[in-house]
Amino acid sequence: MADDPKISQRYRELPREEPPRHVDQAILAAARRAAETRPAPLVVPSGRRRWYFPLAAAAVIVLAVAVTMHVERQQPDVEMAEAPVAAPPLAREEQAAPAQAPAAKRESFTPDPKPAPSQERAPAATTDSRELRAQRDNAPPVELQKAQPAPASPAPPPAAAPALPSRQDVVSGMRESERKEAAAKPQAGVGVAGAMRQRSAAAAADTFATASPEQWLQGIDDLKRQGRHDEAEKQLAEFRKRYPDYRIPEAITEKFEKR
Amino acid sequence: MEAPDEELMLAYGRGDAGAFETLYKRHRGGLYRFVLRAIKQRAVAEELFQEAWIRVIEARSRYAPQARFTTWLYTIAHNLLVDHWRRKGLTLVQLDEEELVAAPDNPARQAEAREALARLAQAIEALPAAQREAFLLHEEAGLTVAEIAKVTGSGEEAAKSRLRYAMAKLKAAVDDG
Fold first, then answer.
1. What is the DSSP secondary structure assignment for residue A212, as one 8-state letter?
2. Which of A85, B5, B55, B163 could cysteine-pair with A2, CB 3.0–4.6 Å?
3. Would you say the ipTM is above 0.95?
4. Nearest Cβ partner of A2 from B36, B154, B163?
5. Do B153 and A14 touch (CB under 8 A)?
6. pLDDT at B41
7. How many CB atoms lie within 10 A of CB A125?
8. CB < 8 Å to B132, chain A
9. For residue range A20-61, what is the model confidence (pLDDT) as tens digits?
């Protein structure tokens, strides 16, 4: 066994350092101050106060639902920003029927009352609606047109294209800064999506703290694998603070030591 | 009979400042030496020692005795040491000369005792960090191998091996005299 009385005895003969008095005093004073601040009462509050907690909880739930809905409503915009890249079949369809295009372009100024996804799912849609969709999808946002002087697909008639406002710009509510960012990059849709993914990853890292310890560690491990060492370090430090006695798997700690 | 650490900590969580004082007096020396001999810089050791106790204070209301209080306390200290080492790029600073030996009271044995203790202190200093930590946890906190494994976040076999190697090296150093 690892015990050796002789070593232990000799070790006890080494000087027995003690913490200095000022450190003792500082710690004990902090402990007393903390003890004086009373914890939350265990007795349920009576009267009007008993509604405070349920009301606060309800408010938090409503807020959470609202934020979730807001986020979900914004996410399809990013997909729509990528749509022009993924619309060649409809573009070909438009080339096959050029005679009907001018009329459809005029109609495209009127906002479509029906949601676009339901139309796209219906295979037996009318010719007009298909053309409308084709024009919408083929027409890039105004800023995108400026940033892309040499499009890969055949150029639309010069008179019609600039005058056609993109439904993405009108309806989606895509932020101005995001559109500029998308226009500045060669692959606009991918750029915006990448930025969104990065932002959501950063937000996810912040939410690790509210997850279980295992999920949090998994997130730290993911950050490390993505090469985001500083964020991983910060998260690990925060984790150790939150869970001082949590046994972090050696597979994770080794990654930090090898850096 | 003395109240167990865990009861004292729970009492402190309920607002009994006296319970904390008892707890602090019980563990202050051991924890301080553990940190000091691991970190080897008095100022930094004092800072980390204080921080460890501050975390105990902050955790008073959510403390639940899932393990021995000692294990929990030294885990906090271990985490702080790891963070410190990582900040320093895992470069361990050499032990200050003043830490090595204080002269024994008996002048007749002074030279011999000084030499023996200096050998032991130097051998402890020369241990790899993980072995030194295992040894200090064993000697200062009185932790078992399983508890050392828990505090350091390693497997029991690793902790046992570290402690065994440390003891063997220290024994060789003491026997040299």
1. -
2. B163
3. no
4. B163
5. no
6. 86
7. 14
8. none
9. 999 999 999 999 999 887 655 555 566 666 777 788 889 999
